[in-house]
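hiii, so i know i said id send this last week but things got crazy w the move. better late than never?? heres the sequnce for the chain we talked about at the cafe, plus the structure i predicted for it. fair warning i was half asleep when i ran it
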Amino acid sequence: MARRTGRSTSHVSAVTLMASVTSRATALATVALVLAASAAALYAKRDIEAHLRTSADDLRATREATQAAQEAAQRQLQASYRPLLIETPPHGPPDESDRALVAGPNKGRVQLRFPGGHEDFADPRAVYVELSGPRINIAVPLRNVGNGLAVIHPMQVQLLGQRMLKQRVGEFLTVVERPRVPPGETGRVPVAGGIGWV
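okay and structure toks below
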């Protein structure tokens, strides 16, 4: 029986040794799996952060492109409502707003009033220029061919030239009888100025 006990002991020792090796191998495998899972989690986190950065950059670029497109569309819309004053054709038909004046007793002419009290009659489509001593009177007909209301500011209209005298402070040399010119209509800008002779 002693033999059997020896064999049993050696058998038990072998089983214990095998169980010990197996449990250590399992522990090492578990540690390896934990390390592999940690590494995978770290790489996954880096990948997600990279995707988030890329997504944030894409979102920022999309917002900037959208904003630029909206601003361009707004500028185009505003441009479509802008006025555009041009010189009237001298031989074209009179403007609707001038037909009543032209059909009146003035025989196709409109009355022009200049600063300083000077008045005269002229063709509504022609540029009027009158030189009288040291004073010059000019009236320019302008047609609004844009889509928006044109506003003529008298203080911003001035005659410039080599012999033109400088306007004194507070001197009002422009009279605009119709400062607002709707689309498709004509307005006139009478301007008076002084000339210095050399």
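btw The chain has a mean pLDDT of 79. thought thatd interest u
miss u guys!!
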